[in-house]
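Narrative summary of target 7.
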Amino acid sequence: MSNVIGQSVSNEPEVGVALSGNGRAGTESSLFNVYGVIANELSHVEATISSELQNSSAEVELLLSHSRSLGGKRLRPALLLLTGKAVGTVSESHIFAAAALEMIHLATLIHDDVLDDAKTRRHQETAHAKFGTRPGVLLGDYLFTHSFSVGSKANSIEAIKMLAQASNLVCEGEIKQNAWQSDFSIDEPAYLQMVSEKTGELCAAGCGIGAVLSGADIGTIESFKSFGRDLGVAFQIIDDVLDLVGDAETVGKTLGTDLQNRKVTLPVIHALATREGKGRDSLLTMLNAETVSVAEVVSALKETGSIDYARGVAKSIAERAVGFAAALPESDASKSLGAIGQMMLKRTF
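Modeled conformation, tokenized:
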């Protein structure tokens, strides 16, 4: 690759490979259209991830081949590349940073699946379900540690610093969520702060790094980070909603795990704040049952309008992101950033 990314090399995978392998065609076709302006650059990211996640050891390669097959929406690297292009020029440094960011994200998903005992992810068996808990944990560790080796190739101390800080905050958010299991006294502001760390921070880092590597000033960098964080928070709130009322085939992973693991999510927080007396006690009994009835809890959440409330909060945050993108200097990249925000407003995947 040259310093400024040019035409795709003929033997590199097309961007559609990452988006079409395991998901729903409609959603991923829309994403492919949104990513069109960075299709060439994203194909370089795919090639980098593929080449970095290979190993001469048969034992290691077995696990890495599973991680290579996961595919996904590539939202975080796309945000990095689109921000870089909206601010200036995308270079080889952006490619390495985007690949590193996606590897960190994959590591968090694999560890999440272990913690949640989820059986499917992106329409296939999870790593720990396929290979066992220990190999699953170790695969996540490998992806996480190797991501910094890849990220160092961006030759930017600031980019590595942002990757490290974001990774730390993701772990802080996960620690909080784990500690809060069955603690139904957690309120909405605490939940939103946790989600900002757990999910919003990697999206914020993607936008921030993209801006840094394109030479943006500190004000622009921070504004793009806020934009990315809003997208991540909106994404996670809807993810929590879909875990309750989504379609497993469309979403592509095991649903109902939040309730079974007694995670505190916004619909539950709202319902408990809305209900009083015996109604609240009844909901707490359902939430603390040895085997939680997802259908019964969802019915109770719908009665209090808590599903719609959570969607409304996500919509408000996503609209803020859309407004930021609309105010950017007009370009194909800024239009795509706005389109991603619009997709969050109607997310079903």
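The two ends are 34 Å apart (CA to CA).
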